[in-house]
Structures are given as structure tokens and as C-alpha cells.
Specification:
Blueprint (H helix, E strand, L loop, with lengths): L3 E7 L6 H9 L8 E7 L6 H10 L7 E6 L5 H10 L7 E4 L4 E2 L4 H15 L4 E9 L7 H11 L15 E3 L7 E3 H6 L11 H11 L3 E12 L5 H21 L6 H18 L7 H21 L4 H25 L12
Parallel strand pairs: 1-2, 1-4, 2-3, 6-9
Antiparallel strand pairs: 4-8, 5-9, 6-8, 7-9
Length: about 350
């Protein structure tokens, strides 16, 4: 079995970090071949203190935990700091987050699958991502609606939050396990990207001849945005940083992500041209997102999804589109929604 390092960037994770560490320390994967690196971005909520106390109480049967500081706070810098402090025998890095938990055999079955796939593909595999699931504990109503919206194809359900089946090639491997030599071949993460750093890394790996995969052999339980304000900031942040990413990787802009702008401008044109049916495109759009609400209502058996999902989709598409526009004219700055989650 190879040596693997789990990397956890943290910033204000006091409500989640202990569950995350418990979940990683209780893996079936041999603890002697597993190390955990927590890289904290100057949290003021007690997160580093909790990690320090956890380290003091560890037993010899658990993986070694190392706590490092990240003065610049953001994920790309944190991952590079961990990358620079890997033990010499580390072969794989599990890139995860502080507000996540894992099935007990998560690392074991994913590493075995990785090794088997490498043998089949002549060693060209750089990373294998996994499928993201809701947290195991009961969620608030808003968190439940956000979860359904993220999983919907009109939300982020075709990207990092896709609910897929089987083992398949991708450009978006959620919370992937990476080969260390693959990361070294592209010099790690781009520290100038405050977000979208994973997408940039994967695009550079693909350009350098590596393959990226994702698999549903296991899953990760992730606590996502929980308030309406966090949802609005999430949409804007992703739109804003999509522009920065597309400037480096033009193929990373799916047409669906600019469709709201095309629809808005098309409707505006019809209106000023006095076309009687100028209202048809926005009505059609509303019917489509309403259908998404019906679908999520039937799936979850929660009638509140009928209103909640279409409304959050409307907010997501609006804030993402405004973020795109904002990103064309403004340089990158710290996203406010990184304050908590």
C-alpha cells in the first residue's frame, strides 16, 4: 500500500474540524501509511487550538497529524504549503476540506481503485475524484434547498456536485486523490487564484498528458452553504473567478454558463424592436426552472422545493452572471463567502 497524505486547508472550521479529523483517523487504511496535514489560514474562531488539542490526545494507532500556518488564508496557498512539506515517501495526496466526513473504508477502496486503473491505463492517471453527498446529520430547511439546487443539472449538478454513476473520465474531479509526481510535473497550484484553483490544476494536468477521472466507489459527506446570503456570494464568486480561469483555459467556459446573458440581451433586443412576443424567452426560462422545482420536489418528497429550488436557481444564475461581468473589469480579491465555509 502506498503512503498517502490527507491535506485539509482550514479557515474558521471550529464547528466541523473535529468530526473531519475523527473520520480520517478512523480509516481502515493503515495509519503508518497515512499522514494528515492541516493548513490553517489564521482562523480566529479557535480552529487551530482545537487541532492542537486533538494532536495532543492522539494515540499511536492513529495517523500523524501536522498543523501548519497559512498567512495568506486561501486554499491554493494552503495546498502549496502542504505540498512543500510532504514527507519524502508520499506517493498520493488526498485533497479534502474541513467540513467533510468520510466512510470508514474511504481511503482504502479509493487507493485500490486508483492503482488498478493506473495498471489499465499505463500509469497516466493523475487524479480520481469522488461523489459528494449531503452531511449525515439533519440539515436546516435552507441547507436542504441549497443541497437540492446544487445537485440539479441547472445548478452545479453537472460539475463538482454531479450525482453520477460508475467510473468515468472528467475535467472536474471533486475532492480528488492526486499522484504526487503528477502535481510535481505541473509545479502544484497557481497561488494567484483565490478560488477555481482546482479547475486550473486539472486543466494543466490534462494539457500535460495526464488523465483525470471520477468514481462513485465511495463518497464524501460535505456541509455546504447554509444561508441565503452565503448562496448569493457563492454564485457571484464562481462567476467572478470563472473569468480569471477562462483567460488561462478558454475551453473551461461551457456555453450554458453564459446562456443567461444571451437570453437577457436577446429579450432586451426583442423589446426595443417592439416584437410582440418579447416576453416569451423569460417565461420559457421561468417554466424550465419551475420544472426543476417539480423534479426536486418529487425526488425529495418535500413540497417546499417547488418554490425554493426555482428561486435559488434564479438567484444563482443572476449572481453568477453578474460575477462574470464583474470579473471582466475588476482584478481578483478575497471572496467574502470564505469567511465561514
Amino acid at each position: 500500500m502506498p503512503f498517502i497524505v490527507s491535506v485539509i486547508p482550514t479557515f474558521h472550521e471550529k464547528d466541523f474540524i473535529i468530526k473531519c479529523l475523527d473520520s480520517l483517523c478512523n480509516q481502515t487504511y493503515p495509519s503508518s501509511l497515512h499522514q494528515i496535514i492541516v493548513v490553517d489560514g489564521n482562523s480566529k474562531d479557535g480552529t487551530p487550538e482545537l487541532v492542537q488539542e486533538y494532536i495532543k490526545k492522539q494515540t499511536d494507532s492513529q495517523p500523524k497529524i501536522i498543523l501548519l500556518e497559512n498567512p495568506n488564508r486561501f486554499v491554493s496557498q494552503a495546498r502549496n504549503i502542504a505540498f512543500e512539506n510532504l514527507p519524502h515517501n508520499a506517493e498520493y495526496i488526498f485533497e479534502t476540506i474541513g467540513h467533510a466526513t468520510f466512510p470508514q473504508n474511504h481511503l482504502e477502496i479509493r487507493i485500490k481503485e486508483f492503482i488498478e486503473l493506473q495498471e489499465q491505463r499505463n500509469g497516466k492517471i493523475a487524479a480520481i475524484g469522488t461523489i459528494l453527498k449531503p452531511p449525515e446529520e439533519k440539515m436546516t430547511l435552507m441547507a436542504s434547498i441549497i443541497e437540492s439546487t446544487l445537485g440539479n443539472p441547472l445548478g452545479s449538478g453537472r460539475g463538482a456536485y454531479a450525482q453520477f454513476k460508475g467510473l468515468q473520465r472528467t475535467r472536474i474531479p471533486p475532492l480528488a486523490i492526486y499522484r504526487v509526481d503528477a502535481l510535481k510535473s505541473v509545479d502544484g497550484y497557481d497561488g494567484t487564484l483565490i478560488t477555481a484553483q482546482d479547475s486550473d490544476l486539472n486543466m494543466r494536468l490534462i494539457k500535460n498528458g495526464w488523465e483525470i477521472w471520477r468514481s462513485d466507489i465511495s463518497c464524501i459527506y460535505v456541509t455546504k452553504r447554509q444561508t441565503f446570503l452565503q448562496w448569493l456570494r457563492f454564485g457571484h464568486r464562481n462567476g467572478f473567478w470563472r473569468v480569471k480561469l477562462v483567460r488561462k483555459h478558454p475551453t473551461r467556459m461551457p456555453l450554458g454558463e453564459v446562456a443567461p446573458w444571451f437570453g437577457f440581451l436577446f429579450t432586451l433586443g426583442l423589446y426595443f424592436l417592439n416584437v410582440k412576443l418579447w416576453w416569451f424567452p423569460p417565461v420559457l426560462y421561468l417554466l424550465v426552472i419551475l420544472f426543476a422545482g417539480v423534479f426536486e420536489t418529487l425526488k425529495s418528497k418535500n413540497p417546499l422545493m417547488l418554490i425554493g429550488v426555482p428561486f435559488l436557481l434564479l438567484m444563482l444564475h443572476t449572481t453568477f452572471s453578474l460575477g462574470l461581468l464583474h470579473g471582466f473589469f475588476v482584478k481578483g480579491k478575497p471572496p467574502k463567502d470564505r469567511v465561514n465555509i
